[in-house]
Amino acid sequence: MVQARPCFGLERVWLAADALWPPFVNQLVVEGEGSLAVRGLREAMDTLLPLWPGARARCVGVLGGTRWSADGEPPRVRAVEDAWDGLAAHSALTQPLDPFAGPIVELVSFPGRLLVRTHHAAFDGRAAWAWVADLGRVLRGESPRGSRFAALVEPSGGAPTPEPPADAPLPAAVTANGPAAGPAVWARRTLPSAGRALLPRTLVAVAETVGAPVRLSVPVDLRRHLAPKIEAACANLTGFVRVDVAPGDEPGVVAAAVELAIAQNADLGSVRAADGLRRVPLWLMRASGKASAKKAFASGRAPVTGTVSNLGRADERVLDHAGFQGRACYWLPPANPGSPLFVTLTGHRQGVELVVGMPPALGGGGEVDRFTGVLAQRLAAVSS
Q1: Which residue, of 81, 163, 257, 309, has the fewest CB within 10 Å?
Q2: What is the DSSP letter of 338?
Q3: Residue 230 has what pLDDT?
Q4: What's the burial of 248, exposed, middle or buried (CB within 10 Å: 0-12/13-18/19+)?
Q5: Rounded to an integer, what distance in angstroms lies between the CA atom of residue 366 and that of residue 290?
Q6: CB within 8 Å of 27: residues ≥ 6 apart
Q7: Residue 65 carries which DSSP code?
């Protein structure tokens, strides 16, 4: 019998985002010494699939009856022989992952790097990392842990969070191209250490880099609301809270605001808001998103300035096995006109990887690199 589960409300929102500005995917880069052979990766994934039915999920049904069925195309593995620096534009970063047929997971092997791509409507960062960790276990001959897919229930409770007014500034000036679709642009800096209170310091540093009060989204793992709590759940179980931050704010005050919102289960508010969209057709959600982005780029104001996601400490050795030794890992955020700024923070033994993504109409012409450089300098100055 084919395993299946409901498509959660927020996951339908990400399906609409993917249809509007594809691809809407998590992209983890693991870089190191040696190579990851395609044959070994394929064999490892064949071993994993019975324990990870969600890795071959496809979306079926419509409106409130939309669900994920684990009979889609299996994960794709391919090798690219040309060099890639792990950041620059590359065709591998723009290949779609089809949520209605599959595959929704792809591994792309480069010399000295592996790009792990998972569709964001079916995987959040926690699920994608658990998948990669199991892949590494199989490559080393260890026992994988697997994940829960069927019988997952979306967390419930709380009141819907209303959409904030479109009064938050965009992170950068809009170019003549406006919100036209196009591949995201990224920049990366490696900070020598995380220091204390990294997330609130980053929120304040973003406001100072923008040079104005901002409203930022902070992703929050919803697995704490599951009963029983399931760590390895293959789904997008990430909600978010929003916080207003101004240049010069004390990080401690900002941290308290985030902690209070989480304590009050404000992260469930985003779930409840999306739940109200279950019976809204995806085409209508796409049209609404396009109109919202067009208005934001015309006015220079949006409901949120951006998103800052602290993904915590990651083991850069996650895929280590004979022939490959990892030295760093980081996430390329899914920036698009609906997410005008997306910052990821990933820690490992060498420091913290700061990656900033923007749609090309905001971050093109070197703007994303300039923004990231200033942001990194502000964080380094405080943590030193």
Answers
A1: 81
A2: T
A3: 76
A4: exposed
A5: 25
A6: 93, 115, 116, 117, 331, 332, 334
A7: G
Residue type, position 126, single letter: R
Please list the residues that pair with 186 across neighbouring strands.
357
What local confidence, expressed as pLDDT, does residue 283 receive? 87
| Residue 28 identity | L
Round to whole Å and give the CA distance between 364 and 309. 22
Locate tokens 């994608």: which residue? 128
The answer to whether the beta carbons of residues 21 and 96 sit under 8 Å apart is no
> Count of CB atoms within 10 A of residue 100's CB?
11
The token pair at 230 is 């399931």
The amino acid at 295: K
Please identify which residue in the block is written with the tokens 């010494």. Answer: 33
According to the model, what pLDDT value does residue 177 have? 66
CA distance 261 to 254: 11
Residue 129 Cα distances to 65, 238, 274, 346, 348, angstroms: 28, 14, 25, 12, 14
pLDDT score of 180: 67
d(Cα 351, Cα 223) in Å, to the nearest integer?
A: 27
Is the whole-model pTM more than 0.85?
Answer: yes
Strand, helix or coil for residue 239: strand
Residue keyed to tokens 């480069």: 110
Q: What is the pLDDT of residues 178-192, one digit of tens each?
A: 666 678 899 999 998
- Distance from C-alpha of 121 to C-alpha of 254, rounded to nearest angstrom: 29
Three-state DSSP at 119 gives: strand
Report the phi/psi class of residue 159: left, alpha or beta, with left for phi > 0 and alpha for psi in -120 to 50. Answer: beta
CA dist 142 and 136 (Å) reads 8
What parts of the chain have a pLDDT lower than 50? 384
Which residue, among 83, 100, 101, has the nearest Cα to 92 in the 3D structure? Answer: 83
pLDDT on residue 240: 92
